[in-house]
What we know:
The strands form two sheets. A six-stranded mixed beta sheet has the order 4-3-2-5-6-7, with helices on both faces. It has a three-stranded antiparallel beta sheet with strand order 1-9-8. By secondary structure, the chain is an alpha/beta fold. The chain has a single domain, classed as 3-Layer(aba) Sandwich (Rossmann fold), CATH 3.40.50.2020. Helices cover 23% and strands 34% of the residues. Bound molecules: inosinic acid (IMP) and magnesium ion.
Amino acid sequence: xxxxxxxxxxxxxxxxxxxxxxxxxxxxxxxxxxxxxxxxxxxxxxxxxxxxxxxxxxxxxxxxxxxxxxxxxxxxxxxxxxxxxxxxxxxxxxxxxxxxxxxxxxxxxxxxxxxxxxxxxxxxxxxxxxxxxxxxxxxxxxxxxxxxxxxxxxxxxxxxxxxxxxxxxxxxxxxxxxxxxxx
Length: 183
Ligand code: IMP
Ligand code: MG
């Protein structure tokens, strides 16, 4: 893991903007799930670990967290089109109110895949919470809680990586094109 600021084009979402928005989303969830019984927040590893940590620390409702890990990456760090389940949830979700917490929606394939496999387990409800969504015409997957919309560029920081680097930056920044499209 390393974070070289020289590789960044510009900051798209500041630390303060992220923190404010995450708090707002948590407050909305607190309201929406007031009467629901013990919802489970499923963080998608690895990208969502920081978002999930911040989000759940603003929750005042009783809840639990669980994780699953998927791989949608090609060799170098860019998105490929096959999604594989690497690590499953620890606990069953049948009859639970479940919220999928994901870092970013690009083509929507990952969320679509996850939604499908979790839906088959018959949760009482299944919602999606995504921090950033790339604005692309081809993308449409229903998101219940969305942080930000961003242009279609490669972004890093706040959990998002390129080839495992830059995850711990406190803001979300556009990576220089020469880094993710070398040559
Ligand atoms: P999708 O399946 O095309 O929606 O891709 C979503 C997954 O690709 C996310 O879970 C991320 O892991 C990864 N991804 C897509 N775009 C970016 C990006 O700009 N930065 C970092 N990861 C990304
Ligand atoms: Mg991811």
